């Protein structure tokens, strides 16, 4: 059994997220390296055990759920959060979730927060540090960009 180490910065890569990255402006393979494109829950559990990590808190890597249209981003967040919830269910105690949000879509994000916390049992939410050219906390931050 692994020690009581908790990895709170542990990216996961649902297949739908990898496909969305490949379709963006990140190069032919989405700018992804093999460790990302070959990510699976089983492989990450092997690595966790090798490094004596008992629990990993899952979160998406940038750019997160701000790849497509408002509706596409809402769907992407829902699918990624459901994917992580299944991993948590299949591996009790081994994974937690900081649920990705479809920001800068405030209405979609509020709905995603409720779903992630109340329905899926996520441990928290994950926000990117910036959206567009604005950092969270910027006094001029307006989630509805020009």
How much strand content do the residues show? 15-25%
Strand order in the sheet with the most strands: 1-2-3-4
Shape: globular
C-alpha-based Rg, rounded: 16 Å
Indicate the percent of residues in helices: 25-40%
* N-to-C order of helices and strands: EHHHEHEHEEE
**Largest β-sheet summary:** 4 strands, parallel
The tally of beta strands, per DSSP, is 6
Distance between the termini: 52 Å
Quickly list its features:
single chain, 146 residues, alpha/beta, four-stranded parallel beta sheet
Short description:
The protein has 146 residues and is of the alpha/beta class. It contains five helices and six strands.
Describe the 3D structure.
This protein has 146 residues and is of the alpha/beta class. 39% of the residues lie in helices and 18% in strands. It is built from five helices and six strands. Helix 4 runs parallel beside helix 5. The chain starts with a strand and ends in an 11-residue tail after the last strand. The mean pLDDT is 88.
